[in-house]
């Protein structure tokens, strides 16, 4: 029998009361949204340590999502690389196939408490949209998902999944027609229907309290990893690697480890086709601080402060911003951020598929590749955990095209 | 006392309602901006808001989105826009001119540098829709000490305590957002708008300018009654967008703005 | 922490020593395969109660597959139907998305013990093929999957998945080009490479010891269900419903319940387009006993004993035979078998998606529809478990076409 | 003593090797079966195996698979095939004729009915590749008591104990499968075949017929030496398949079978 999980959401030092992670974060939103995010912040703070809320969250994480998911020892990949022991935190085993649903579950439970029945969400890869449509169906809520037109094509499978669950998918035809524009459109919807609408953001981005709240809901990843690794190895891992789009799987994984200075933390961004602006989505690697989507954070942008078009083979990393806490963790040096190209990600995907029988999402594949390079340089006594943020089924068409 | 506050004092004394028009810099072309600004003033606009285009105008409807994209494509920059304003203010020293734009282009330019150069261009004030009172600290006191104003917005869902904060931080006038929604011309405004504006008048001592959705002389006249004046943006851009060339645009804009001004009495 | 699972494989009364379930089952294979199935039987019997084997099996089921999976209470579906409480046994949460991997893991662990490094398998929906490719990759074995040419088209996504995991997918162009012919082709391969090849059959079909062995490996489904339902409701469920293609998810689910006469068991076959021969795959509903693929069992066949072409919207049910133990359970009356049409299955799929946010496989959707009809007639105090054998991602293209 | 055993006794006495040819009933057409059987006998075939087509011939290679599909498409039935054999046996009473086929069509027909009607048609015996000794009980004693034989197969991987079981249950002759694989003409047979056949001769008292893969007179001659004779199937079907019509098929089959018979000396 699986024991029921009550994730302990721990209030950390950051963000401060104004929603800042050092200089980053904040609430850079149109006035009309201020009451909504204030209401949300109040509501969230009131449930954050409410045992009944945590019990409910734990119940659905366990009975519906299938948590705790495994920490799988990747014996063949380890052997092939010949360095550190590689473990995989299996978010791909969650219902709907990625970590996104942890956060959605938390937010929609909160929305239910707040009496909001109209849910909106943006989605890039479609995983957050699918997760939102899923939980909305389970809770009997209306759901509208904004998705860049380009992404509705490259992630068509996920569009059908959302529609089957009675979500309305709205193809966003403005701007670059990808994730960033889907967020713009979702915010416009929110501005217009602010009274009855709950905006379920899919990553640790947006105005306060989202970066904090999403991190907290996702920190179940890191909490489980910590105790599972303890059980398997009797100590903490030497290194942890996660991919960074908006940064939610990474923050959820890192959260309980940040205070353990001996654990090296690595965030991996989308290096795309090249280091030229427009050819990648490696915000922390190449970006500069800026203000977008309600937060102050690193951004890929022009000299004039126009947000850049970005590119990644993986729709879920195709975002010119990043969660503000990552910006802080970068500047403080606590986390090392690097990037991996489209081609390398494909290699990572193939490698994990062939050695472990696990096809990762293209997003995740970035972390896999980076982790292998890292593990190679580590000793056999050390161990490294990859946050296997999602499965690759959704990406098979893209992968086919590139093989 | 800031130029804007003086201006509103004068208008109130003259028992005049204020008509403010928003125009995106560099739209539809860079060359069009100064002539169009002239046209606005000639037609009776009392105040000008020059928009700095941004790639992600998330509080704007389709009209301003398209105009922003066009202006970016035209290579419009903040420096250039400051120059437009400097020339405009030289020519029309009686007409307040505000710089309106999303935070990021300003942030990238540098808050301090922005304020200094705006002051040098004789800019009257700023409207930054995604810089609410809680985020304005890096810029507010410098704006004030340079004799300019930072305009805040109030919306139908702004609660009383918050309005007090906005009143306290804001200066110049209060931008009353007529509806819950994005910018863009509307046929009608919701029935609640009137009560909202009455509440603002009761609870704020700032002049009140009503914006968002105003598309016709009738609507403008109606809304102007409830405050100190109105702000029109998308309705004018729609006219420009539908004009074959600049002279045609100037003509149609002139007619529309004149009618609005006339209707506002 | 998840407790490690050691599935207790229980020797039941059936089959008898000669591999018979009453008159059904047996070893109707070419002489050349007799030594292979004898070796297999001996090997299996020697590990069946070997604690080390069971520990290994339990380790991978838990750490790799993600077991135990949940028993989810379908509150909104229950409410909508207004009858018995409906529970879902979540095989869709397994790694690779269906129950198939339980069996594959058992067989390939056995193959590893037997020193066989060349694995062959047949597949219909592709789920068994994917599961086999997956575990073969994890264990570093060569893997060849036979798949009917028609199925390689309707389940293209799964073909790519197998190839990514370095399996060779051989499109079978003989006969009806579906599952039955894939099995024929796999047997021909086995006949030709009998010395070094392990044939990993995907259901409770084929010659003895497969029907017994596959049932045993899959019985982890029923074992978990039994104790999870006990924990949730304090008693056994009144009814259990599973879809039946070859019959492995159903047998695995039924196995521990067969002796509990008070639990009504229902197997649901593919009713296809109509009851006309060739239009469905409802073997137990419309078939007659016959001999195919090494077993004596109900078959869809002509008067002359030629095996019929069959049809189902779901590739995984598109099989003219059925596991011999089901034939016995039908004749003994212990299990009630019924059928559900293509159209009804689609309705079931939509219903579960919209009410619970769970998109079932088209195979599973047959069980969902049947279970809803059943639950409607039961009282609110009773409870019913559906074996949610797999997820529907693989079927999105088919579903799109039919909506 | 069964007809087949008598026949092998006579052949051994005459120091003759036995050539047995497999032909699917109803292939390439229903009308062709009896003429082709005649041709086989005329060309020197000593024994005949008439195949009952089955939809799922899982021990057969592509040649016999195609032939089976064709025969089914032609509407070939078991009753019709029994009739072919009755006519054949009437015309060629000295030539043993076996019914060969997968279990299911026989099972559906009914084991008892099958044996009775086969006996009435003067069938000499049965080869049922997916009915190994452990599954033959429902039919074996009735076959024997009707004076017919049930032929079992031995394969290179058959272990000694099992061969004893096969020897005990089988009668007529032992069908030695030359290789591990499905049916179908091969250029060569594996080197191990010879040792396998020697083992069978040591460990079995039944006459040994070698089948699977034999495609040329040379191979036939070689294999015949190691036992009592050979069985050829796919090689003949290939010839029929490549013939434009029945006369051409009869001609080429006649030539091939004659050459084989001659080579076997
Ligand atoms: C599987 C997977 N991993 C990672 C990401 C990136 O998002 P984040 O950085 O917020 O985890 C996504 C986004 O869609 C995803 O689907
Ligand atoms: C999800 C799913 N359910 C059910 C089946 C049917 O197989 P069985 O009856 O052996 O469980 C399949 C076969 O592919 C399947 O993929």
Characterization of this structure:
- The complex is a heterotetramer, with 2 copies of chain A (403 residues) and 2 copies of chain B (265 residues).
- In chain A, the strands form 3 sheets. In chain A, strands 3-4-14-9-10-13 form a 6-stranded mixed sheet, sandwiched between helices. In chain A, strands 1-2-12-11 form a 4-stranded antiparallel sheet.
- Chain A starts with 19 loop residues before the first strand and ends with a helix.
- In chain A, helix 4 (100-113) crosses helix 9 and helix 9 crosses helix 11 (248-254).
- Chain A has helices at 34-47, 51-65, 75-81, 100-113, 127-139, 149-154, 156-164, 179-192, 210-218, 220-233, 248-254, 283-286, 324-332, 342-356, 362-376, 396-402; strands at 20-21, 24-28, 71-73, 85-90, 118-123, 142-148, 168-172, 197-199, 239-243, 264-272, 288-292, 294-299, 335-341, 383-388.
- Chain A is of the alpha/beta class.
- Helix content of chain A is 43%, strand content 19%.
- Chain B is of the alpha/beta class and 265 residues long.
- Chain B has one domain (3-149, 216-260): TIM Barrel, CATH 3.20.20.
- Chain B is built from 12 helices and 8 strands.
- Chain B has helices at 3-13, 33-43, 62-73, 78-91, 103-109, 111-120, 137-145, 160-169, 192-203, 217-225, 234-241, 246-263, and strands at residues 18-24, 47-52, 97-101, 125-127, 149-154, 174-177, 208-211, 229-232.
- Chain B has an 8-stranded parallel barrel, surrounded by 10 helices.
- In chain B, helix 2 links the parallel strand 1 (18-24) and strand 2.
- In chain B, helix 2 packs parallel to helix 12 and helix 6 (111-120) packs parallel to helix 7.
- In chain B, 56% of the residues are buried.
- Classes of the chains: A alpha/beta (403), B alpha/beta (265).
- Chains in contact: A-B, A-C, C-D.
- The C-D interface holds C 18, 26-32, 34-36, 174-175, 180-181, 183-184, 187-188, 191-195, 288-294, 296, 299, 301, 303-307 and D 54-62, 65, 69, 72, 77-78, 102-109, 129-132, 134-135, 152-155, 157-159, 162, 166, 177, 180-182.
- Bound molecules: pyridoxal-5'-phosphate (2 copies).
- Residues 98, 100, 124-125, 127-128, 203, 243-250, 316-317, 361, 363-364, 389-390 of chain C line the site of one pyridoxal-5'-phosphate.
């Amino acid at each position: 029998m699986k024991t029921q999980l009550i994730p302990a959401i721990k209030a950390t030092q950051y963000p401060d009361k104004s929603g800042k992670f050092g200089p980053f974060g904040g609430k850079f939103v149109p006035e009309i949204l201020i009451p909504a995010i204030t209401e949300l912040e109040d509501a969230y703070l009131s449930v954050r340590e409410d045992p009944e809320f945590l019990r409910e969250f734990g119940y659905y994480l366990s009975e519906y999502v299938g948590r705790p998911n495994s920490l799988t020892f990747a014996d063949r990949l380890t052997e092939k690389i010949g360095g550190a022991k590689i473990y995989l935190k299996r978010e791909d085993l969650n219902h709907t196939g990625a970590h996104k649903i942890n956060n959605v579950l938390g937010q929609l439970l909160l929305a239910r408490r707040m009496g909001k029945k109209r849910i909106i969400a943006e989605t890039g890869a479609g995983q957050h949209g699918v997760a939102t449509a899923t939980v909305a169906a389970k809770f009997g809520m209306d759901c509208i998902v904004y998705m860049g037109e380009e992404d509705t094509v490259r992630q068509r499978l996920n569009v059908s999944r959302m529609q089957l669950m009675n979500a309305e998918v709205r193809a966003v035809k403005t701007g670059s027609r990808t994730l960033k524009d889907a967020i713009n459109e979702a915010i416009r919807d929110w501005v217009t229907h602010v009274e009855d609408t709950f905006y379920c953001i899919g990553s640790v981005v947006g105005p306060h309290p989202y970066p904090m709240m999403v991190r907290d809901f996702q920190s179940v990843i890191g909490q489980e990893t910590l105790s599972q690794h303890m059980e398997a190895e009797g100590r903490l891992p030497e290194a942890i690697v996660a991919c960074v789009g908006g940064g939610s799987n990474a923050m959820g994984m890192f959260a309980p480890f940040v205070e353990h200075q001996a654990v090296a933390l690595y965030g991996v961004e989308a290096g795309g086709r090249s280091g030229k602006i427009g050819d990648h989505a490696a915000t922390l690697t190449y970006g500069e601080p800026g203000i977008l989507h309600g937060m102050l954070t690193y951004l890929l942008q022009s000299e004039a402060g126009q947000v850049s078009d970005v590119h990644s083979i993986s729709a879920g990393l195709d975002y010119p911003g990043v969660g503000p806490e990552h910006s802080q963790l970068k500047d403080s040096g606590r986390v090392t951020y690097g990037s991996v190209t489209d081609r390398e990600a494909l290699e990572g995907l193939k490698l994990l598929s062939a050695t472990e029988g696990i096809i990762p999402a293209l997003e995740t594949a970035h972390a896999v590749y980076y982790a292998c390079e890292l593990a190679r340089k580590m000793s056999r006594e050390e161990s490294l955990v990859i946050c296997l943020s999602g499965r690759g089924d959704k990406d098979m068409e893209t992968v086919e095209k590139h093989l | 006392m800031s130029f804007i506050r003086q201006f509103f004092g004068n208008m109130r004394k003259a028992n005049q309602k204020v008509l403010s028009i928003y125009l995106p810099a560099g739209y539809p072309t860079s060359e069009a901006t100064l002539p169009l600004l002239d046209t606005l003033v000639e037609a009776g606009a009392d105040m000008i808001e020059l928009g700095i285009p941004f790639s992600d105008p998330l509080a704007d409807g389709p009209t301003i989105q398209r105009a922003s994209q066009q202006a970016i494509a035209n290579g419009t920059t903040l420096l250039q826009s400051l120059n437009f304003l400097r020339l405009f203010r030289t020519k029309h020293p009686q007409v307040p001119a505000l710089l309106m734009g999303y935070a990021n282009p300003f942030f990238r330019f540098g808050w301090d540098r922005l304020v200094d150069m705006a002051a040098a261009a004789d800019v009257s004030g700023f409207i930054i829709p995604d810089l609410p009172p809680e985020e304005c600290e890096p810029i507010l006191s410098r704006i004030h000490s340079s004799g300019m104003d930072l305009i805040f917005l109030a919306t139908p869902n702004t609660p009383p305590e918050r309005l007090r904060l906005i009143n306290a931080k804001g200066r110049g006038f209060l931008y009353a957002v007529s509806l819950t929604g994005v910018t863009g011309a509307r046929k009608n405004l919701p029935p609640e708008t009137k009560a909202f504006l009455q509440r603002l008048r009761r609870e704020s001592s700032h002049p009140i300018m009503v914006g968002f959705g105003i598309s016709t002389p009738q609507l403008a006249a109606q809304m102007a009654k409830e405050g100190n004046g109105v702000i029109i943006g998308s309705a004018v851009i729609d006219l420009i967008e539908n004009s074959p060339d600049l002279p045609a645009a100037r003509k149609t804009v002139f007619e529309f703005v004149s009618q609005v001004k006339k209707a506002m009495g």
